[in-house]
């Protein structure tokens, strides 16, 4: 930009360029303005068009003159790439080597600048063949905290146009280059110089008097004539902007016309001397500025932020539409009441807002503040980030404040969620009940104090890498542990499972383990470890009690059954059939009690791993028929349908296999009270035998299907609870099937029935 200094009455040419630290303001004092002017007000940003027309070469050098960075303009002139000059001595680059004199100028300037002096000089360079540029160069040293020169900033401004203009001006001065005119005191124009006559394409006679007015644009003639008459009448300076027609091309250009009265010693006007100065470029710049301002206004109305502009005292003078829509205030309300907007700040944030703004006004520094603003339409408060930046004039005085309010409600919610998550994580890691570990591969890389206390290890063991879940897992649990970790890798989490850990002192700790992959660290997982020893001890006591109780009940029950059978036969012989029938009912209940005790004993032996199995050839076709006949006799309410597609046999314990299918058939009958049929199906392949038992009863909910095979578990529905049982049948079935390395599965629909399928390998020799 260029402007005239009112103090020295000289022209100042000012350029703004980026440097490493910030911005470099470069001021040149000139006797006359450059032919081409760009007027940019301090509060306006440079438009792209202005930047493209402004040539400034900016470079960052070491104190020795090595190029650290350089902008694109000089690179384009010399047609070289940045990497060709970065790291090279600046004086040896293509701009300077063709001219030894200029090269020596630069070297001398670098030497002086490296000693702390700001050096300015004008020189001629040759970026490439056929191209000459006059530069006004400035090398500015920048010091570090120890006041040593750490780097140099080079700014080279193209003054070729100015140099040429100066040469032209010199020639034009000799040839009276300006449009000059004179008039009598009454305003009658008596003379136009040759240049003005040529421009208007008039003869001197045509331009005399008011004839020159014909060359003024029709829209300006009345205004110009009235201004000229006022100046004649008052004797004051005549100055007016007008459009003059180029008589040869017919185009109009803007001129600034000035007339100065020339007076004698008594103050009487002798004549007027005037000039017409071409201001077409200035007018275009003003138009560009106007358009730039409009573009800035449109930009302010387009961005999603609430935008505001305030005077130096903080009084708002402009707010964009988003601001007005959010607060519900009109521009008039904002401009007439300095504190109008305060009512929309959350009461808890008003004091902090006042303090931040006042500190910014006192210090003239940028401010940034988070506060809650109320939406005038909904009454809802949302978090905003409020920023304010001071805009200064050439003297450093603040002329206005520009600011934005950016909605950060979602960001604040995320931050709050993150804080809550971190608090939950911290609470979890500090838990005194649950052990928590972070694992990566086989290594435990972190653990809370509870886990270390449970296993007897300490932080030194953890940091030394001695905690490895493979090494502290007993061999009999490795297969299940590996299966759980494979599930973790595939599904990002693992189903909690029971295992034991080897503690530091060699003891074993029963635990329940679960885990999940960490979302932001896919190679790490978090595992939760619950001490299971109390539960295991309780289960052991329960098993011991069941085993003891079963053994204690077995002998009295056997004796009671024998005595009841003898008494029933004796009463039958004596013809007391009523009493004998009652004893038969007692025998039936004793048989049920005996079967229950036997099941309890089987469960106890299974838990201890002491259940015995015989080895014999079992014809499943015959076995299933016998079981079906016996169940049909006991439960005449249901029709048992046996479908035998093949004759199949295997090696096993006939009684234990009989338990499997008897329990399944008994359950199918019990849990289908409203149905009339139950199906059993036998099928086989070359390798396996499959038995399916299907009912049309109550069915099992999806979430309980995996649990029904657990010991003492029963489905929790109201109808199921009404059916007697201890939940041992399916557990016994599962353990026997596992012994034969077989599988059992269930397919069920609530209200439609269930189908249990047992698959046994033919080759199993047990």
UniProtKB/TrEMBL annotation:
Matching CDD domains: HATPase, HisKA, PAS
GO MF annotation terms: phosphorelay sensor kinase activity
Transmembrane segments: none
Group of enzyme by EC: transferase
InterPro entries: HATPase_C_sf, HATPase_dom, His_kinase_dom, HisK_dim/P_dom, HisK_dim/P_sf, PAC, PAS, PAS-assoc_C
Keyword Kinase: yes
Domain Histidine kinase, first and last residues per copy: 548-764
Residue span, PAC domain: 119-171, 238-291, 367-420
Residues of the PAS domain: 165-235, 292-364
Coiled coil: none
Keywords: Kinase, Membrane, Phosphoprotein, Transferase, Two-component regulatory system
EC id: 2.7.13.3
Domain of life, per lineage: Bacteria
PROSITE patterns, per database record: HIS_KIN, PAC, PAS
The reaction(s) this protein catalyses: ATP + protein L-histidine = ADP + protein N-phospho-L-histidine
NCBIfam families, per the entry: sensory_box (TIGR00229)
Stored PANTHER family: PAC DOMAIN-CONTAINING PROTEIN (PTHR43304:SF1), PHYTOCHROME-LIKE PROTEIN CPH1 (PTHR43304)
Stated name of the protein: histidine kinase
Organism encoding this protein: Reticulibacter mediterranei
């Amino acid at each position: 930009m260029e402007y005239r200094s009112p103090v020295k009455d000289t022209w100042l040419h000012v350029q703004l360029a980026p440097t490493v630290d910030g911005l470099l303001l470069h001021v040149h004092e000139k006797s006359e303005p450059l032919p081409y002017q760009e007027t940019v007000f301090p509060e306006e940003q440079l438009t792209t068009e202005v930047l493209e027309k402004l040539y400034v070469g900016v470079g960052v050098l070491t104190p020795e003159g090595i190029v650290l960075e350089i902008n694109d303009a000089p690179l384009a002139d010399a047609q070289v790439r940045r990497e060709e000059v970065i790291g090279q001595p600046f004086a040896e680059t293509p701009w300077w080597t063709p001219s030894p004199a200029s090269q020596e100028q630069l070297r001398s300037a670098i030497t002086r600048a490296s000693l702390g002096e700001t050096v300015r000089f004008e020189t001629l360079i040759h970026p490439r063949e056929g191209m000459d540029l006059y530069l006004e160069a400035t090398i500015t040293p920048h010091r570090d905290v120890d006041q040593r020169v750490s780097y140099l900033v080079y700014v080279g401004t193209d003054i070729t146009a100015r140099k040429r203009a100066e040469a032209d001006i010199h020639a034009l001065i000799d040839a009276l280059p300006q449009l000059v005119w004179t008039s009598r005191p009454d305003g009658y124009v008596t003379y136009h110089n040759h240049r003005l006559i040529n421009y208007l394409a008039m003869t001197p006679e045509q331009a005399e008097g008011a004839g020159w007015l014909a060359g003024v644009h029709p829209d300006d003639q009345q205004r110009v004539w009235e201004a000229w008459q006022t100046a004649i009448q008052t004797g004051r300076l005549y100055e007016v902007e007008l459009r003059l027609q180029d008589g040869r091309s017919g185009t109009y250009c803007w001129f600034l016309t000035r007339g100065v009265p020339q007076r004698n010693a008594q103050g009487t006007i002798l004549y007027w001397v005037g000039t017409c100065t071409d201001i077409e470029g200035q007018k275009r710049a003003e138009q560009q500025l106007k358009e730039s301002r409009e573009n800035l206004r449109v930009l302010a109305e387009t961005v999603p932020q609430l935008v505001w502009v305030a005077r130096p005292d903080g009084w708002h003078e402009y707010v964009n539409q988003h601001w007005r829509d959010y607060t519900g205030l009109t521009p008039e309300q904002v401009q007439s009441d300095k504190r109008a907007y305060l009512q929309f700040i959350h009461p808890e944030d008003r004091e902090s807002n006042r303090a931040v703004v006042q500190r910014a006004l006192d210090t003239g520094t940028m401010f940034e503040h988070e506060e809650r603003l109320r939406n005038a339409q909904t009454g809802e408060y949302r978090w905003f980030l409020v920023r304010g930046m001071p805009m200064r004039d050439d003297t450093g005085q603040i002329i206005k404040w520009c600011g934005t309010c950016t909605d950060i409600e979602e960001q604040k919610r995320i931050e709050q969620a993150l804080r809550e998550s971190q608090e939950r994580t911290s609470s979890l890691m500090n838990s005194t009940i649950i052990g928590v570990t972070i694992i990566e591969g086989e290594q435990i890389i972190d653990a809370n104090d509870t886990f270390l206390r449970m296993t007897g290890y300490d932080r030194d063991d953890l940091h030394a890498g001695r905690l490895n879940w493979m090494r502290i897992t007993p061999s009999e649990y490795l297969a299940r542990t590996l299966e759980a970790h494979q599930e973790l890798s595939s599904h990002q989490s693992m189903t909690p499972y029971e295992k034991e850990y080897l503690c530091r002192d060699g003891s074993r700790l029963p635990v329940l383990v679960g885990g999940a992959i960490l979302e932001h660290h896919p190679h790490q997982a978090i595992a939760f470890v619950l001490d299971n020893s109390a539960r295991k001890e309780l289960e052991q006591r329960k098993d011991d009690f069941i085993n003891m109780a079963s053994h204690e009940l077995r002998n009295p029950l056997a004796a009671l059954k024998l005595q009841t059978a003898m008494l029933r036969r004796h009463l039958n012989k004596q013809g007391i059939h009523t009493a004998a029938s009652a004893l038969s009912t007692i025998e039936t209940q004793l048989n049920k009690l005996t079967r229950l005790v036997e099941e309890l004993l089987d469960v106890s032996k299974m838990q201890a791993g002491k259940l015995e199995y015989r080895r014999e050839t079992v014809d499943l076709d015959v076995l299933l028929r016998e079981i079906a006949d016996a169940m049909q006799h006991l439960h005449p309410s249901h029709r048992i349908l046996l479908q035998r597609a093949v004759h199949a046999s295997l090696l096993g314990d006939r009684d234990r296999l009989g338990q499997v299918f008897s329990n399944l058939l008994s359950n199918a009958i019990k849990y289908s009270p409203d149905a009339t049929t139950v199906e059993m199906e036998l099928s086989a392949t070359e390798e396996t035998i499959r038995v399916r038992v299907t009912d049309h009863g109550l069915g099992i909910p999806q979430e309980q299907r995996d649990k029904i095979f657990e010991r003492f578990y029963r489905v929790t529905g109201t109808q199921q609870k009404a059916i007697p049982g201890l939940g041992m049948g399916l557990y016994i079935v599962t353990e026997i099937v596992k012994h034969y390395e077989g599988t059992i599965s269930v397919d069920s629909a609530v209200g439609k029935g269930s189908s249990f399928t047992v698959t046994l390998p033919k080759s199993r020799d047990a």
